[in-house]
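[step 3/7] fold_predict: job queued, chain A
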Amino acid sequence: MEIPWLCWCSVILTIPLTLLFFQWKRKKAPAIPLPPGPTAWHILRNQFKLGKRPHESLYAFSLKYGPLMSFRLGMKTIVVASSPAMAKEVLKTHDHIFVGRTVMETAKVFSHHKFSVLWGEFGPQWRYLRRISTIELFSPQRLEARQHLRRHQIFHTVRLIFESKGKPVNIPHMAFSNLMNVLGNMIFGTSLIDPHNPASVGLKDAMWKIVKLYGLPNLSDFYPLVRLVDPQGVSRQMAKHLKRMYDFIDLFIQDRITTKNKKLQQDSDKDFLDALLDARTEDFTLFDIRALIIELFLGGTDPTTTTIEWVMAELIRNPQKMKRVQQELDDVVGLKRKVEGHDLDRLPYLDAVVKETFRLHPAVPLLVPLKSVRDCEIEGYMVPKDAQVTVNLWAIGRDPAIWKEPLEFMPERFLEGDNSEIDYRGHNFELIPFGAGRRQCLGRPFGIRMVHWTLAAFLHSFDWALPCGITCKQIDMRDDFGLVLKKTVELNAVPIARLPHHVY
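[step 4/7] structure written:
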């Protein structure tokens, strides 16, 4: 997209004014210094490099400036934690201070942030959105009661793969369809996606673009004077894709309102949408309901789909590790039935494979940025009020001081020694794929169940080979940065049935 000359003029004028402002402000520096970091001029010279692969660039900076560093980008002070100790300071010790949210311009499209659990400010409305989601959708009781929905959909997906008759399967699209249909049944009481329908691919692409746009560095976030012109067109792109999601969700909401007006439903027939509509008040409107449902779909599909794809790619690249997972499944489940939900707690090696993937390929490499609600001192450094604070999970997962041979895919590391005690529920800061503290991902219980059960079903039901002409070493393991760290080239693999045909 060609950027109008007026937009560039605004940017060119804004940047030097911003730097002059900070030069003046630096003369009035506080007694307690900011965490160390690159100078404003240095980060400006590296801004575009930082923008392409921020998780890697910030890791490189942390090697020079330490596990807690700061820099100024435009009008914002950015603080990055790159070690478990610093992550704990931000997400646990001082989580009552870093409970705010830095709202990106892309999140302000259609005023989405005002009704959002992801981007919303900490307060009564935000707490209510989390509470109703937890109670009605993600509580242990609700997840157990709706286990049959996950079971039915996963078995249906396995059947679709079996019916491909040895043709290559697009792993992320199959996983995405599986997740969308599980969530569709939990929220709307119906499946939403047909993996053989091209329209389904379009919906997946729209959702991925939204997640990608959320993660892209945007000049409008750092230079307020250029927000109106949107020089990179990021907000305009977001509006297009978000409207598509709004229209999609609105169809279900309006249809359900009409249906509810025609008949009364028994409690046993109610789904999550019914619970939300029943809870409507002046403070909890259809705008809140729509925004919440969109975020549940985005948060419940893209990170989980990405994790499943990375696991499958790593196991196909490491056939011996795939065989070990399958042997564990055969020992626990056998070859005469499918994997059931109650089998998952008896699969420690599969769990280790998932942990290793969370470490090496975190779905969200930079946790969604927090905001300090007041000044806070950490390790002798000042994190000022309104600073944007994030945790670099990608850096933590590659720290050689924590992990032996950090670039190697070694699930065994989680079965022995101190690492065997590491979990991913927000208590061990070496591995926090869902975050920690008050802003921890509310869908964690659902995500963990879906990742484990889907992978167990895929690996127990099939051997997996690469399409003709591609070797294990030729699998493209590059990633595209966004809010979610997606594989650049989607994984296609050939399923080979390994169970008796009647089981499918």
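[step 5/7] annotate
The chain has a mean pLDDT of 88.
The first helix runs from residue 5 to 26.
exit 0
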